[in-house]
């Protein structure tokens, strides 16, 4: 196998890791979960979880990667031979995610083209999104996105992933801040004569709503926030283990973790500022309840009501979303390529070409899952879904909590937290949150991951029913 390359330094690593973390989950899933779960209540709970559980999971993955110098499968095997199975399970997660991530990227590309060509009226129609994904022609958009991802990963860690991340992440952050500020300046008159402003929408987003709050509802909000962490930080799927294996030994890993936390959480928070105030201004509270359709259905309607400015902002927003999807898609494919190279002792270019062919086929099948290969399956959590939803449920809702549960047991009780702490303090570096890390990885993580895993299996749904 060719000599393993790595990131040139801390900045390149942080941008790449943050690029993996800052994905469509931040721009799409976070805002609608916040709107659904009482605004400020969700934000407070999420922030607490990021600084505790999220910090622990991210630290663990990166430390495992750098200390072992290997990707998921062989990283766990090098720690304890009997735990190689955990590496295999972890490897399966990106394998499944990669089947549909480029599909979502393709959806975003379609909206970029609609806004670029001035077809805002078409983009804003309620049935545009459903008509697009149910058309066999949508597959070409997803295949293009998959090819773009493959091309970047083919270039390697330094010349491909790091170079693209160093360009995309600053631009992405600039665009997020710019649109967020613009959204606060909006104003519109509702049908009942009420004047709605972006600041009013910001208050809806930030103000905690404890109406009807019960222990059960609080638990559900906490579980939603916890599941968002997996999307947001790219933990428990082998990606950060792979990226950690590329990090130089002299990089301050503790500082890097903090920087990734700040960038990822900051973008997620600002995504809410970008999306929720405009939706409130033009669609009212009803628009806030759009759920998963917030990005592809509600937002285009908002942009259409802004006139020419809406066309420009809409175009910029979907370019931003495409950047976020691309950096995440790159990290998922890179994780698979890295494991392939280690397992088969293969060179990067050959591994990338082989896997790209596999995932072009898989992307095509999933993209056609709303038309040619349409199926509808009842999932254990009480929802129904198509091929994309099935892959998403298995990887994100079922496997990731299970992996986090086993990983916390391995590190907390078998390897002991000191194994990770030693890596974080390598070269005399300071790890100020090591006591917090030790307590959470041993006691808190196993409990919350077990609860989250039970939720994913449908236990709570069955009890409720």
TrEMBL record:
Keywords: Membrane, Symport, Transmembrane, Transmembrane helix, Transport
Pfam hit, one: SNF
Domain of life: Bacteria
CDD domains on file: SLC6sbd_Tyt1-Like
Zinc-finger listed as a keyword: no
Bilayer-spanning residue ranges: 7-28, 40-64, 85-118, 138-155, 167-185, 225-246, 267-285, 312-333, 353-373, 393-415, 436-463
PANTHER family: TRANSPORTER
Recorded family membership: Belongs to the sodium:neurotransmitter symporter (SNF) (TC 2.A.22) family.
Protein name: Transporter
Organism: Peptoniphilus ovalis
High-level lineage: Bacteria, Bacillati, Bacillota, Tissierellia, Tissierellales
């Amino acid at each position: 196998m060719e000599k393993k390359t790595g990131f040139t330094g801390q900045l390149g690593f942080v941008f790449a890791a943050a690029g993996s973390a800052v994905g469509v989950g931040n721009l799409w899933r976070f805002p609608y979960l916040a709107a659904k779960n009482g605004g400020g209540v969700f934000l407070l709970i999420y922030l607490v979880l990021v600084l505790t559980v999220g910090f622990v999971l991210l630290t663990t993955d990166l430390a495992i990667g750098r200390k072992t110098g290997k990707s998921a499968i062989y990283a766990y095997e090098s720690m304890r031979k009997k735990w190689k199975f955990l590496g295999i399970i972890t490897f399966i997660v990106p394998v499944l995610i990669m089947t549909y991530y480029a599909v979502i990227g393709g959806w975003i590309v379609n909206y970029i083209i609609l806004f670029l060509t001035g077809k805002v009226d078409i983009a804003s129609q309620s049935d545009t999104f459903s008509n697009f994904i149910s058309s066999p022609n949508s597959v070409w958009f997803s295949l293009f996105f998959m090819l773009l991802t493959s091309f970047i990963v083919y270039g390697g860690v330094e010349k491909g992933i790091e170079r693209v991340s160093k360009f995309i992440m600053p631009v992405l952050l600039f665009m997020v801040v710019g649109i967020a500020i613009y959204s606060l300046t909006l104003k519109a008159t509702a049908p009942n004569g009420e004047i709605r402003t972006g600041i009013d929408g910001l208050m809806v987003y930030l103000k905690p709503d404890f109406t009807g709050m019960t222990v059960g509802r609080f638990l559900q909000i906490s579980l939603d926030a916890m599941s968002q962490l997996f999307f947001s930080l790219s933990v428990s799927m082998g990606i950060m283990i792979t990226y950690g294996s590329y990090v130089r030994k002299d990089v301050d890993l503790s500082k890097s973790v903090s920087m990734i936390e700040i960038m990822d959480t900051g973008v997620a928070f600002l995504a809410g500022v970008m999306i929720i105030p405009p939706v409130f201004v033009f669609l009212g509270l009803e628009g806030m309840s759009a759920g998963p359709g917030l990005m592809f259905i509600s937002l285009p309607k908002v942009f259409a009501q802004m006139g020419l400015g809406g066309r420009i902002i809409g175009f910029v927003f979907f370019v931003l979303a495409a950047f976020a999807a691309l950096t995440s898609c790159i990290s998922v494919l890179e994780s698979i390529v890295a494991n392939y190279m280690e397992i088969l002792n293969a060179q990067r270019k050959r591994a990338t070409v082989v896997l790209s062919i596999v995932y072009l086929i898989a992307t095509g099948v999933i993209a056609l899952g709303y038309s040619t290969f349409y199926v509808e399956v009842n999932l254990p959590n009480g929802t129904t879904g198509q091929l994309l939803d099935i892959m998403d449920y298995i990887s994100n809702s079922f496997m990731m909590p299970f992996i986090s549960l086993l990983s916390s047991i391995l590190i907390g009780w078998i390897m002991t937290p000191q194994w990770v702490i030693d890596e974080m303090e390598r070269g005399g570096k300071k790890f100020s949150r090591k006591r917090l890390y030790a307590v959470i990885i041993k006691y808190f993580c196993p409990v919350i991951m077990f609860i989250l895993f039970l939720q994913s299996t449908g236990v709570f749904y069955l009890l409720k029913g």
